[in-house]
């Protein structure tokens, strides 16, 4: 999900629609296991789930299958909304408790009308709104007392993050910029992985076969999402913790990307 703003905007929904063509039961099962591994076992079934920036709709599908009593998915990107609807049509068409809408995490009136939820989920979303700190605060306001907030935010790498912002801007500026970024960075990612695997005497194809083991995602679609994902903001883990503590949130779990490229993942409980 992204907001229109000064920064060029990536077509997240179109990328997710391509991903749907590669979705299968195995990917869905892997995504379900990743959710169960990160959340406390008793915190899913019978609870309400708000999916901010639903994207492909995979996480909302998993929440529905794991027994959430009510699931609400929304996204700013119309193609992402349609992608989530297609996900429901294929795999859980008879789920009246799963609602899908177009909406914005920066729209206070829309959010206030949604009320509060047991689990608020925004994985890799809020840093693409163009107003990340406002979005972080708005998401927090949707959590019920005692409820959980599960977010993933791009790690702040200082100057490296600044350079990536320029690359993303180039990607979204024109089709030639997009071709240049894809033609340069994807071979670089693949070659870097190949060299690393060979040095460690590992099978170079293993990383791609096992990629879906994490969240059931596709490495190529995640690469494209990373290269084009704009607007683009970042934060250190310390900055996120300092933001939520005064708002009555206690950190339950933290999974960092090791100070490198990628997202830091947080699970907070609202006191």
Walkthrough of the structure:
Mean pLDDT is 88; it is low at 1-6. Helix content is 47%, strand content 18%. It has helices spanning 12-20, 25-38, 58-65, 78-91, 108-114, 132-140, 159-173, 175-199, 206-209, 212-215, 219-228, 237-244; strands spanning 48-52, 70-75, 98-102, 117-123, 143-154, 249-255, 263-270. α2 crosses α3 (58-65). The protein is α/β, with parallel strands linked by helices. The chain is built from twelve helices and seven strands. It has two domains: 12-156 and 233-270, Vaccinia Virus protein VP39 (Rossmann fold, 3-Layer(aba) Sandwich); 159-228, no CATH class. Strands 3-2-1-4-5-7-6 form a seven-stranded mixed sheet, with helices on both faces. 38% of the residues are buried. The protein is globular. The two termini are 28 Å apart.
Provide the fold topology.
Blueprint: H1 12-20, H2 25-38, E1 48-52, H3 58-65, E2 70-75, H4 78-91, E3 98-102, H5 108-114, E4 117-123, H6 132-140, E5 143-154, H7 159-173, H8 175-199, H9 206-209, H10 212-215, H11 219-228, H12 237-244, E6 249-255, E7 263-270
Parallel strand pairs: 1-2, 1-4, 2-3, 4-5
Antiparallel strand pairs: 5-7, 6-7
Helix pairs in contact: 1-4, 1-11, 2-3, 7-8, 8-11
């Amino acid at each position: 999900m992204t907001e229109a703003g000064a920064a060029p905007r990536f077509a997240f929904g179109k990328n997710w629609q391509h991903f749907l063509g590669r979705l299968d039961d195995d990917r869905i099962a892997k995504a379900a296991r990743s959710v169960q591994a990160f959340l406390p076992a008793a915190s899913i079934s019978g609870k309400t789930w708000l999916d901010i920036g639903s994207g492909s709709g995979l996480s909302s599908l998993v929440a529905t299958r794991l027994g959430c009593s009510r699931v609400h998915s929304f996204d700013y990107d119309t193609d992402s909304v349609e992608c989530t609807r297609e996900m429901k049509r294929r795999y859980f068409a008879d789920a009246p408790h799963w609602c899908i809408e177009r909406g914005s995490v920066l729209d206070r009136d829309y959010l206030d009308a949604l009320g509060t939820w047991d689990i608020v989920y925004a994985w890799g979303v809020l840093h693409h709104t163009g107003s990340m700190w406002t979005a972080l605060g708005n998401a927090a306001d949707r959590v019920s007392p005692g409820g959980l907030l599960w977010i993933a935010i791009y790690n702040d790498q200082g100057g490296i993050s600044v350079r990536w912002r320029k690359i993303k801007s180039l990607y979204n500026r024109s089709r030639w910029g997009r071709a240049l970024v894809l033609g340069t960075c994807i071979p670089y990612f693949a070659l870097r992985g190949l060299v690393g695997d060979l040095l460690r005497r590992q099978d170079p194809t293993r990383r791609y076969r096992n990629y879906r083991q994490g969240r059931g995602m596709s490495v190529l679609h995640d690469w494209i999402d990373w290269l084009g994902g704009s607007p683009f903001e970042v934060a250190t883990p310390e900055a996120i913790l300092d933001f939520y503590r005064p708002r009555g949130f206690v950190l339950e779990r933290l999974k960092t990307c090791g100070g490198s490229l990628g997202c830091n993942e947080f699970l907070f409980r609202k006191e």
